[in-house]
Amino acid sequence: MSNEKQIDPRELRNAYGTFATGVTVITTTTPEGRREAITANSFSSVSLDPALLLWSIGRDSRSFDAFNGCDHFAIHVLGEDQQELSNRFASKDLTDKFAGFDIEEGIAGLPLLTDYCARFQCSIYNRYEGGDHIILVGRVLDYDTRENDPLVFHGGRYRRIA
Ligand SMILES: Cc1cc2nc3c(=O)[nH]c(=O)nc-3n(C[C@H](O)[C@H](O)[C@H](O)COP(=O)(O)O)c2cc1C
């Protein structure tokens, strides 16, 4: 008999959701110069030397090809007052998620948001197969931090640090 529990994807998602995370918006530019962005809470720090971090993108995301094929990406750790921005960049409907935002140009033309707790500009270090996601490991080329309190995601809801 197998020791593997019968997995219900919705229950498993709820179990994953017990792990409180921050919220990030991750951006890149395609070789044709199109800006892409996605909200992600799969961010994790990995290594200090070399400076590495990771996140994962779902294969069913519209921006999957852009991130899977990119050389660089930028990660913005959101502040507690950036819930609306998180929803915007998680939207499946918007054609231009960046419309109306102040954007700075970063390394290799990366579109950078100007409001954040922390911002990391990365080159692709490695890609790993991860089931219905791809795991992207980035090498940190530059980073900035601010004194804001972070936005928190837990149990499928946004929260603030008390
Ligand atoms: C708080 C939060 C965290 C998310 N984390 C991830 C993630 O780590 N990876 C991912 O692929 N999608 C994640 N998503 C879902 C994407 O943001 C969402 O599917 C988005 O619409 C994809 O955009 P696209 O289809 O336009 O590329 C998250 C959504 C929210 C609201």
Description:
The structure is a single chain. By secondary structure, the protein is mainly β. It has one domain: Electron Transport, Fmn-binding Protein, Chain A (Pnp Oxidase, Chain A). 12% of the residues lie in helices and 44% in strands. The chain contains three helices and twelve strands. The protein has helices at 9-16, 64-68, 83-89, and strands spanning 21-22, 24-29, 35-40, 44-47, 52-58, 72-77, 103-105, 111-113, 118-130, 133-145, 151-154, 157-160. The strands form three sheets. It has a seven-stranded antiparallel β-sheet with strand order 3-2-6-9-10-5-4. A hairpin with a 2-residue loop joins strand 11 (151-154) and strand 12. It is globular. The model has no long low-confidence stretch (mean pLDDT 96). Flavin mononucleotide binds next to strand 3 and strand 5.
Which descriptors apply to this entry?
3 helices; three-stranded antiparallel beta sheet; seven-stranded antiparallel beta sheet; mainly beta; 12% helix; globular; binds flavin mononucleotide; 162 residues; 12 strands; Pnp Oxidase, Chain A; 44% strand
Globular, elongated, flat, extended or rod-shaped: what is the shape? Answer: globular
Q: Uncertain runs with pLDDT below 50, 5 residues or more? A: none
Assembly type of the shown chains?
single chain
Note the run of SSEs as H and E: HEEEEEHEHEEEEEE
Strand order of the largest sheet: 3-2-6-9-10-5-4
**Describe the biggest sheet?**
7 strands, antiparallel
End-to-end Cα distance: 47 Å
- CATH-scheme architecture: Roll
Compute the number of strand runs.
12
| Number of domain modules | 1
Helix tally equals 3
